[in-house]
Amino acid sequence: MAFAVSVAGSAVAASTEHEHVALPTDVTLSMTDALDYTVTRYPSFLELDARGEEAQAWSERGDSWLAGQPALSFRYQTDRWGDDQGLEEFESGIELPLWRWGERSAVRSLGAALTTESDLATVALRWEVAGQLRGVVWDIALADNDHELAEEALQTATELTSIVERRHALGDVALSDVLLVRTSQLELQSALIDAQARLLDTQRAYQSLTMLDRRPAVMAETQSTRHEISPEHPALSFINAELDRAVASQLVAENRAKQSPTLLIGPRRERAAFGDEFDESVGISVRIPFGGSAHTRTTVAESVRGTAAVRSARSQLIRALNLKLHEAAHELDVARRNLGVAGELASLAEHQYTMGLSGYENGELDLIDLLKLRTVMLSAKRRRNALAIEEKRQIAFYNQAVGEL
User: Fold this and answer.
1) Could you read off the pLDDT of 204-247 as tens digits, one per residue?
2) In this structure, are residues 98 and 81 in contact, taking their beta carbons and an 8 Å threshold?
3) How many whole angstroms separate alpha carbon 307 and alpha carbon 301?
4) How far apart are the first and last CA of the chain?
């Protein structure tokens, strides 16, 4: 018995050095609450305010009466340092940039597109974070299941060890059986340590994502009735808004490349050479840029390329979303079909192990055969429980794929 005591003592010493602290489950914390909290602390959340400010700035620009900033001008001319015949001219004015035909409408369209894009960016971010949250929560559920089964397996091994040691004390079995069953117990103890480590890793991943020190209870989701990617999908809606913004931005760039006409209004005060009095007048001048397509094309080319890039990204996204939906539906179907078979296999394996244990106690079965039956039973139970969780997990992934929050 000294051997068993020393092993147990070393395990306890190791566990006290790095005790596993389980992440508590808060039944009052819903997945929606966790999602709301996580989104506000997600790095991309900082971009949302900037998007809103950009949209507001362009909307306000479209409401302006002028196409750009007004400017003051002043000109003074004299022949004092030349012939010095008394010539002097003073000219001042205000320069007003005017809207080209359709330019103001284009700016307003850009402001509206940016506003829509900003609103849908929030929805798209929630969908993105929801996918990550679903993943880490169900990873914890799978790891928790493995941990519980590892504890149950170790408990079963401990009970079997007691039976073998008792029979050895009575002289019914050899010492080799005791060593064999103890070895198996130690292997299961090591498996429990690994399961604890995996559970800890999944919990840390959840904490890193959510910045929470508690987790919601895992609730099975109801499968969405949608069977295809709809235009209302958060990711698709957002990239459609990005495309509308890119098209509007391209139209604004085309107008800006042509430059705005300007209106100059201002007084003029002048005195001719050899004159004694100043003449005062008011002048109006208009500046209208024209031509120069070789120069405007270079300015517009960048926005055209940007629009093409968004169109390309949209096509790629549609393909990716459809592929993801197909994979989710396929994985869910496979999990459901395997679950029924796994349940029957687990029931048979448990029954065989119970019969084998009885046979071993009666001296009708060797220990090595009993351990094989136990291994088969534990593997079957692990697969059955994992598939039961996997079905719920794949339902959550299916809902994520079709854009359900």
Assistant:
1) 999 999 999 999 888 889 999 999 999 999 999 999 999 999 99
2) no
3) 10
4) 57
